[in-house]
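Everyone, study these two lines:
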Amino acid sequence: MSSINQPLNLSEISQQLESENSRDRLRALVSLRDLSPDDAVPLILKVIDDDNLQIRSMAVFALGLKHTEDCFPVLAKILETENDYGIRADAAGALGYLQDNRAVEPLLRAFYEDTEWLVRFSAAVSLGNLGDVRAYDALIQALESNETMLHQAAIAALGEVGDLRCVDKILRFAQSEDWLTRQRLAEALGHLKCDKSLSALNYLVQDAHPQVVTAARYAIELLVSK
C-alpha cells in the first residue's frame, strides 16, 4: 500500500511543525486531531508562538480541545499578554473548553479589562461553559453593552450558570428586535425553572420567527420535565 494515505507518526509530525513552509505546519496541526492529549499537547506547544496568525489561532484552539494540565497556564498567559485581539479571543474560547474552574478568574479579568468586544464575547461564552456563579455579576453587566452579540452570549451564559436572580434581568430581551437574541432568551429560560420563565416562554411560542418558536417550545418541555 502507498504511504501517502498512512497517518504521520509523532516524529514526522514534529518535523513538519518545524518546517519553514506554513502549509506543512498547518497540515501537521490538523493531523494532531487523532492523537491523545498527552501526545498532542507538546507538539501543539511547538507552534503556539508561530509567526503565522492562522497557525497560532489553530494551535490555541487545539489546546482547548486536547487539554492537559499544561494547557491552562499557557492559555491564561496568552489571554493576558497577547497583542493580537483575535488570538486573545481564541484563548478565551479555549479556556471554556478546559472545564477547569481556575479559568474563571482570567476570564473575568478579560471581560472587565479587555477593550475588544470580541474578546469579551469569547470570555462571556466561556464563563457560561464553566457554569460558575462567580460569573454572574459580569454577565449581568454584559446585558448593558451596546453590542447585540454580547447580549446573546451573556443571556446564553446566564442560562448555563442557572442563577434564578437573572430572570428579571433578561426578560426585557423578549422584546428585542433581534430574533437571535430572543432565541437565546428562550433557550436560557429552559434552564431557569420558575413561574416567570414559563410565562415568558408561553409568550415566545407566539413569536414571529420560527426558530424562536422552536426554541421556546423545547424550553417549555425542559421546564415541565424538571
